[in-house]
Amino acid sequence: MSRTRLRGFSRSDTTRAEAFSDGVLAIAVTLLALGLADPPHRPGGLGHALLAQWPAYLGYLASFGYVSVIWLNHHQAFVRVRVMDRGLHAANLLLLFSTAALSFPTAVVADALQADPDGSDARVAVALYAGLAAVMCLSWVAFYHQLARRPELLTPDVESTYVRHGRLRSWAGALAYGAAGLLGVLVAPPAAVAVFVVLPVFYFVTSDGFPAER
Fold first, then answer.
1. Residue 124 burial by CB count (10 A; 0-12/13-18/19+): exposed, middle or buried?
2. Element spanning 39, H or E
3. Per DSSP, what are the bridge partners of residue 70?
4. Which pLDDT tens digit goes with each residue over 102-131?
5. What contacts 96, CB < 8 A, 6 or more positions away?
6. H-helix or E-strand containing 207?
7. Burial profile 22-33: b = 16 or more Cβ within 10 angstroms, e = fewer
8. Cβ atoms 179, 48 nearer than 8 A
9. For the chain, which terminal residue's Cβ has fewer other Cβ atoms within 10 angstroms, N or C?
10. Residue 214 predicted with pLDDT over 80
11. For the whole model, what pTM was predicted?
């Protein structure tokens, strides 16, 4: 029996996209852990050296939390996505592109804060982190926008509020990370890092939608 000739970009199931995404997210978390290292120290100075690299711990906490809630929300999204089209693949790849790069600004922030927590380099570093984190949020905006344009990609029993909630959460995150970056540049870089640590909690708490409308 001859195969039907495919024309254009064909829709596909989510299996390969989910497997590829899980692999990228796993690597992203692993890269974050590589930023934690035994600090150089003199004999008897290990305790002080470990304490001195506190920015690396905060950066790891903030970024691990962010990637973790991305994985959680990504899983929840693909419970509801039935098939993929080109636009949804593009949005998903943008999300993975930005997530895979998160270890870079995490390391930059840790190094800059350790050198001078209130210096100009630290301010540039938190702005870099905030910018990439905001891009990650905007990739979710694109993801949900495509689902809003193509509701047939979703399972028939998906919640009526799912896409709207997802878009609101994504825009809120982009604005929050942007505001945190401004806080770090204009006021104090450690304050921005504190916001970076807390924001993933918002995404975790709202992963099942906003509590008032569940």
1. middle
2. none
3. none
4. 999 999 999 999 999 999 999 999 999 999
5. 20, 21, 24, 25
6. none
7. eebbeebbebbe
8. no
9. N
10. no
11. 0.88
Q: Which 3-state string (H, E, C) describes 61-119?
A: HHHHHHHHHHHHHHHHHHHHECCECHHHHHHHHHHHHHHHCCHHHHHHHHHHHHHCCCC
Residues 35-52 have a mean pLDDT of 83
Residue with tokens 């708490």: 205
Burial class (CB in 10 A: 0-12, 13-18, 19+), 152: exposed
Q: How far apart are CA 152 and CA 147, in angstroms?
A: 8
Structure tokens, 26 = 């796993």
| CA separation, residue 5 to residues 1, 29, 83, 144, 189 (Å) | 12, 41, 20, 31, 57
Tokens 């304490």 locate to 51
Are the CB atoms for 135 and 98 separated by under 8 Å?
A: yes
| One-letter amino acid of 158 | V
Task: Tell me which residue has tokens 């804060």.
Answer: 113
CB 131 within 8 A of CB 182: no
Helix axes 189-205, 103-115, angle to 10 degrees: 140
Torsion of CA 110, 115, 121, 122, to 10 degrees: 50
Beta bridge partners of 12: 84
Cβ 137 vs Cβ 174: under 8 Å: yes
Phi, psi of 155 (to 5 degrees): -70, 150
Q: How many residues does the chain have?
A: 214
